[in-house]
Task: structure prediction
Amino acid sequence: MFKKRIILIIVAIAGAIAAFQLTRGTASEVAIKPPPYEPAVRDKNGLISAAGLVEALAENTSVGSPNSGTVAVIHVKVWDKIKAGQALLTLDGRELNAQLEVQNAAVTAAESAAERAIDQSKRWTSIKDSGAVSASDLINYQMAAKEAQAKLNLARAQADQLKVMIDRLVVRSPIDATVLQVNVRVGEFVAAGIKAPVILGNIDQLQIRCDVDEQLATRVREGLPAKGYLKGESTRAGATDRAIPLKFLRIEPFVIPKVSLTGASVERVDTRVLQVIYQFDRPADHNIFVGQQMDVYIDTSKSSPANESAK
Result:
């Protein structure tokens, strides 16, 4: 009986010590710091917020290489303005050039063989009525001439194929644009379809891709006015002098998982969004770059131009 009391007393003391340590550890926890920027405040009812990502007009173009190889020459650098068809980079083509030389020699040999076979066929055909050649031999000569001509055509086609493959070693711009990124250096290996070595875009005008949460997607209509704010200026949502006016382009009618996260604690990876595209001119008093995030506010309290015309 006495031992049980001692055990109970020890257990009670241990519990008290554990409770004290737990309370002291909780009290010493560092308080969570507030976010560096206060969330944007709606300046009137009817606004819905969206996270926007700046893109080049008509979207960024990731130019890939159709072939794998080592980069031999880079023809452009970031900020260069280029034209459609201009060379961006060239891969090492020594192996294909050597194959082309071999194939050109094969074409020359095939030309000689074809000329000889065709000449024999013509000579024996011209004397077929004299009885100097049998009908079966004459057919053999004619078929040999056709076979030699077919081999010549095949050799020329293979040479043309190598020329096309050599030309494809030069990666060219598909559009008039500005070079936004060059992701390779001379001597690096480029794998076909794996990495985009060059990213292009028309940045004279910019567009912004807005992610509207699917809970708010039903409130979005075509032509709604919107305005955008750079990150860090969201606390001045009511200050119209810092707002960037946006021009509606289109709604992409396909709700997708959100891939561009702003870092807010309320965002979840499984969030699905409706993407709305707006366009804007580059403002003189803002330095805005492709890939930059913006806070976008779409005004659903106003009627869209499409609704006004329908009335």
About this structure: The helical segments are 2-27, 94-126, 135-167, 305-310. The longest strand covers residues 47-63. The mean pLDDT is 81.
